[in-house]
Design a protein that fits this description.
The protein is built from three helices and no strands. It has about 70 residues and is mainly alpha-helical. α1 runs antiparallel to α3.
Length: about 70
């Protein structure tokens, strides 16, 4: 697969990942954190704010990988 096509596909996938992840994380937060203290909100959004980086790292590694012949 050419590197340009791989980067294009990876970019689209990262955008979709961020949008879907944000919707799911906020839906879970609204459903479960209604009566939680402020530190519960802080911990939840700190954790979920960093968790999306793991699948994005995998995509970026794939995008930057050596071109296959």
């Amino acid at each position: 697969m050419p590197i340009r096509l791989r980067k294009f596909i990876g970019t689209i996938l990262i955008i979709m990942l961020v949008l879907v992840y944000a919707l799911v994380a906020n839906t879970i937060a609204v459903a479960t954190l209604g009566n939680a203290p402020w530190w519960g909100h802080l911990l939840y959004f700190l954790f979920t704010g960093l968790l999306w980086v793991l699948p994005a790292m995998v995509l970026i590694k794939w995008m930057a990988g050596p071109p296959q012949k």
